[in-house]
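Before relying on records like the one below, remember that each one covers exactly one chain. Contacts with other chains, cofactors or solvent are not represented anywhere in the record.
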Amino acid sequence: MALKGFKAKKRLLWQLLLTAFGFLGLYLYGLRSLRSLEVFIPMGICPRATMPLLRDNFTGVLQHWARPEVLTCTSWAAPIIWDGTFDPQIAEQEARRQNLTIGLTVFAVGRYLEKYLEHFLDSAEQHFMVGQSVVYYVFTDRPEAVPYMTLGQGRVLRVERVQQENRWQDVSMARMRTLHEALGGQLGQEADYVFCLDVDQHFTSNFGPETLADLVAQLHAWHYHWPRWLLPYERDKRSAAALSFGEGDFYYHAALFGGSVAALRKLTAHCALGQQLDRERGVEAIWHDESHLNKFFWLYKPTKVLSPEFCWDLKIGWRTEIHTPRLLWEPKEYTLVRN
C-alpha cells in the first residue's frame, strides 16, 4: 500500500510539473492573454519596520500606505516610486532650491532618427522635468538631420556625432562607451543628474524630480511580477554579464536608467568593460547592454527604483496598479528601423 501511495504521489508530481511547464511555454511563446494572470503573482510587501526609515532626498517621507497593493521598497531599503507615494511639488521645489541641471541623453542612429526622435523630444518638452534646467544630448550619425526644436527657457539641445555600426546590436552596446566618454566631458560638467533613455518611446505625463537619486533603475514592464528564477538574465557563465540562478533582485530595463554623473560613470565603465571582455571571449550577452546593466545593479544596488508606471508598454494591456504612465513604448517596427 505504501508503495502504491508513493507511486501515486510521484505521478501527481510529474503531472503538476508538466502542467507548469506547459503553462510556462504558452505564457512565454503562445497565448498572450495568459499574461493577464501574472497580476496574481504577489510582488511582496514592504516591511513595516522599514517604512518610517525610507526618506527620499527630493520627496521627504514616502507615502507607502497610499499603495498597499504593490511593493514600495527593496530589501536594501531603497524606495520603489509609484504614483501616489510622493508629493511632486515638494520634489520640484527641492530641485529648484538646489539649482540643478538635469541631462537627458538619447541615441538616434540610422532610421531611428526619422522614425522616433522628433516625437521623443517634443514629448520631453511637454513632460520631462518641467520648470527645471535641462540639457538634451542627442547622439546620432547624422547631426544635420536632427529636427529643429523650439525649447523652453533654461533648456538646451546639444547634438553629438557617433559612428554608425554594422549591426543594431553593436549600436546598442556602443552607447555605454560613448556615454562614459560624454559623462567625462561636457555633459558631466553641465549636468548634476543624467537620465539615459531609448528613443523609441515618448513621454505622456509628468516625469519630474521625484525620479532623481544617485543611482536610478527602472523595473521592466514585462517582468516586474515574475519570480527571480524566470527572469531573463544572462546565464552563460562565459559572459561577464552572467548571473546564477541564486542571484538577481529585479529585472531592470535598459531603456531608462539614470543618476549622478559619478555613479553613471561607474555604471557605464562597468558595462563597457564587460562587453569588451565578452568580445575577447567570443560571446555576446543575450540582451546585450541590458544584460550587463542588470549585472551591475546586482553588484551595486540602485538607490531608487522606478515602478513600471514610469516606462510602460500598452501591448501588455490594462493593469489596475498602473495609474499614470509617464513613458510609453512606441510600436516596435524592427523590420523598418533595423534593416
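Residues 2-29 form the longest helix (28 residues).
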